[in-house]
Write a structure and sequence with these properties.
By secondary structure, the protein is an alpha/beta fold. The chain has nine helices and 18 strands.
């Protein structure tokens, strides 16, 4: 569906819209969204994302996913104009007169890598980041910024009509962790996974996202329960190891933590990358200090690590690609 087709259907009062899930844990699946809850989500977002009659939205996300579609819904609900750009890795090679933009961490990384694009980004009033985890080093750089641009990191999924919690990274509204938006309550189950309560799911929506709460009621996302590696009976969160590597080694090329079957350990941790030279002959003590058994047992180089449309590593495809290295 094109932007014109969606807006035409919206303006005619269409009650349901079909999108595809992100595909981060399997093949993308169709999800039906209801108009009343799309409006509710946009209104709830509008209480956090500052906007007024002189603002303009920039849409540079895929329209077959909830992130891009909800940009258009917010434009209609907030009564603001919207500019469209192709959802490329760097949609800010040229300046925009829009004041509010939604980006994936993948896009943000490419924008930040070019000074001209980074300068264009700082012309916005509000930058909403979502779709996957944000690189810890880039997040720390944003936290140190002193500028008019407010950066907000979102947590949500296709089934929750975009974000249900937001972490403000800089400025006077800065938060320690993610804070649930108005009308949403988030709890944990016996597996420490988030359970989301909202008007469209009053009975609770269970997730596979492992979270932990801070003393102020905000929460941090530890990773997905699906991505826990059980190595020798010890459960290791893949995303946690990736964050440690990002912080300490600051690799320039893509990488991820995965696992292979092992006769002794059950699963052994492996590092999958596009450039072995960045990781060979490294002292992995920085990992062992926080995760005793979290160091990679081997390094596997792929010509290209596959990513899905949302900018997330395609972990299932990677597991398939590295099976040839099975011990």
């Amino acid at each position: 569906m094109t932007a014109e087709e969606f807006l035409d259907a919206w303006d005619k009062g269409e009650e349901t819209f079909t999108i595809l899930s992100s595909g981060s844990t399997g093949a993308p699946k169709p999800i039906e969204l209801k108009r009343e809850w799309m409006i509710w989500s946009a209104q709830a977002s509008g209480k956090i994302i500052h906007h007024n009659s002189g603002d303009k939205l920039l849409c540079c996300l895929p329209l077959d996913k909830v992130g891009g579609l909800m940009v258009l819904v917010r434009a209609r609900v907030w009564g603001l104009p919207v500019e469209f750009r192709e959802p490329k890795s760097n949609p800010l090679k040229q300046a925009s007169d829009a004041t509010i933009v939604s980006l994936t961490p993948y896009q943000l990384k490419h924008i930040a890598a070019t000074q001209k694009s980074a300068n264009h980004l700082l012309n916005f009033n509000e930058v909403l980041i979502g779709g996957s985890a944000l690189n810890p080093n880039l997040e720390n750089e944003i936290k140190r910024l002193k500028c008019k641009t407010v950066f907000r990191l979102s947590y949500g999924m296709s089934e929750t009509y975009s974000h249900v919690a937001i972490k403000t990274l800089n400025g006077s509204e800065k938060t320690i962790g993610f804070k649930a938006i108005e009308g949403v309550r988030i709890e944990t189950n016996q597996d420490s996974c988030a359970v989301i309560y909202a008007p469209y799911c009053p009975e609770g929506m269970a997730t596979n996202d492992v979270i932990e709460f801070n003393s102020d009621g905000t929460f941090n996302i530890i990773g997905r329960r699906d991505f826990i590696i059980n190595t020798g009976g010890v459960k290791i969160q893949a995303e946690h190891i990736e964050a440690l590597i990002d912080q300490h080694l600051k690799p320039a090329s893509p990488f991820m933590i995965s696992s292979l079957e092992d006769d002794t350990l059950g699963e052994k941790i492996v590092l999958v990358c596009e450039d072995k030279r960045e990781f060979e002959n490294q002292n992995w003590q920085f990992i062992r200090e926080q995760e005793k058994y979290g160091s990679p047992r081997s390094i596997i180089e792929l010509k290209e690590i596959p990513f899905n449309d949302g900018g997330k590593p395609d972990r299932l495809k990677v597991k398939s690609l590295i099976r040839m290295y099975q011990a």
